[in-house]
Hints:
Layout: H1 3-25, E1 30-32, E2 43-46, E3 50-54, E4 60-64, H2 73-99, H3 110-147, E5 156-158, H4 160-180
Antiparallel strand pairs: 1-2, 1-5, 2-3, 3-4
Helix pairs in contact: 1-2, 1-4, 2-3, 3-4
Amino acid sequence: MSSGVELVGFLMCVGGWLLTAVSLANDYWRLSSVSGSVIISVRQYQNLWQSCAEGSTGVSNCRTFQSLLALDGYIQACRALMIVALILGLLSIVLALLGLKCTKLGSTSESTKGKMALTAGVLFILSGVCVLVAVSWYAARVVQEFNDPFYGGTKFELGTGLYLGWAAAALVMLGGGFLCTSCKSNPAPAQTRGYSYNYTSQPQKIYRTEAPSDYSSSKAYV
């Protein structure tokens, strides 16, 4: 895999992480529904942290959610998922910077950098899944309340923050996939065929000792 594709994946992840932060801070996760010929002078909108009302003059009054335990369970879960996504994204950015092929960190080998890039890609994908679950869960509740004929409260529609969250999840997961492909298993070194040589030891020298002159072997004849 080329370093250019890896760098593009990293930039996509960083952009998606920043977009996640923007989505979390956005005020318009849900907007009050305006339909029919009735002129509505007050528009309501909410996010995970506060509820606001905007008058016809453009002046907004916001009320922060006071008690965490008094909130609906899905709002608490969406908060936790978005915060976990930001933490995972920050950790992934650090690992990806160390694992990119275009960065040098001491004598780090290519296999180690590939493993770091793979870990960063997996964490980025998990971060994107957290964002996707949070915004989809919140959107499902908004749609459910809107279509419920017995719901007596204010009916809302999907806001800008949800669309930003979906875009952030798509960028982070796609960029994380690019980073995961940068880790390749190094092929095993090919075994070279060659000739084997058997080295024999040098022949030993045999020293013959002659018998003394006064000793001779005799043969017996019958």
